[in-house]
Amino acid sequence: MPPTLRQLEALVLVYRLGSITKAAAELRVTQSAISLLIRQIEENFQLKLFDRTTRALHPTAACREAITAAERILTGAQGLSARMRDLAEIKAGRISIAVSAGVASALLPRVFAAFRSRHPEVSIDLRDVAPDELLTVVMAGHAEFGLGSVEDEGVPEVRVDTLMQSPLSAIGIKDGRFEKHRRLSWDAVMGSDLITMRRGTRIRSQIDDALAQSGRALKPAWEVSLITTALALTAEGAGLSILPGHMLPKAQFPTLVAIPLSQPTIYRHVSLLSRADFGLSPAAQRFIEITKRILSAKGG
């Protein structure tokens, strides 16, 4: 059977120090323990490793042949131990994250900045995808977890945790009057040029279903596929965007403001999507902790 790391450690130390006594002191064990470890290797391979005299130990030719390999194995094991400690202490590693494009644009830059300032050695593989692709990417193992406006679809293999929520809002230009509204009703904005997501998207379906309950229907002036397109059109005065309030990246669109819509109030969530049967790495867990803290403050 192959020698243990402890046996190899004893062998290398006795070879380097030329003394069982010194090797025992280095490992903080008894001399008899070191002698036993060396004897176990010799008996296992039927090789004599040291010639013993009353004053010293002398490595045999077999010992000199074996010592290079023993040192290489110990160096590799020590390197592995150091790497494992770094991973546990989040001083190294890599995390792969799938994020819906809107969340990546509006919410993630601040989270990334906070995480990188604390753990600059950890690399991040970011996959910005459409919300409907989050589940596929995570379940295929291409990302440890996903962040986005996803619903709990009742799939047992999937864990969905809500991180924050905000109401759908009318997003418009700050003109001295619009930003003074604390809340707007859907009826109040129906006469405006509205910019919405296309039919079939989850946001649009949620709006259409909620308004249909009171016999109303949305008649937008613009239908787009990307949140950034809607916001860019609004910034140029094309109309009001109907989007979750948290989807407005204020640094990118400082002239815009989100006013919550009511009657009815429709909420959209930002959730964490992960595989129920897979644990997350220490780095991923820390990233999620920072995300929860920042999103909680933003939602509040």
Can you walk through the features of this model?
This protein has 300 residues and is of the alpha/beta class. It folds into 2 domains: 5-88, Arc Repressor Mutant, subunit A, CATH 1.10.10; 94-299, 3-Layer(aba) Sandwich (D-Maltodextrin-Binding Protein, domain 2), CATH 3.40.190. It contains 11 helices and 12 strands. The protein has helices at residues 5-17, 20-27, 31-45, 61-88, 101-106, 108-118, 134-139, 186-189, 202-212, 227-235, 282-299, and strands at 50-52, 57-59, 94-100, 123-129, 145-148, 158-173, 184-185, 194-197, 222-224, 240-244, 256-262, 267-275. The strands form 2 sheets. Strands 3, 4, 5, 6, 7, 8, 9, 10, 11 and 12 form a 10-stranded mixed sheet that branches. A two-stranded antiparallel sheet has the order 1-2. A hairpin with a 4-residue loop joins strand 1 and strand 2 (57-59). Helix 1 (5-17) crosses helix 3 and helix 2 (20-27) packs across helix 3 (31-45). It is rod-shaped and about 105 Å long. The two termini are 61 Å apart. GO terms for molecular function: DNA binding; DNA-binding transcription factor activity.
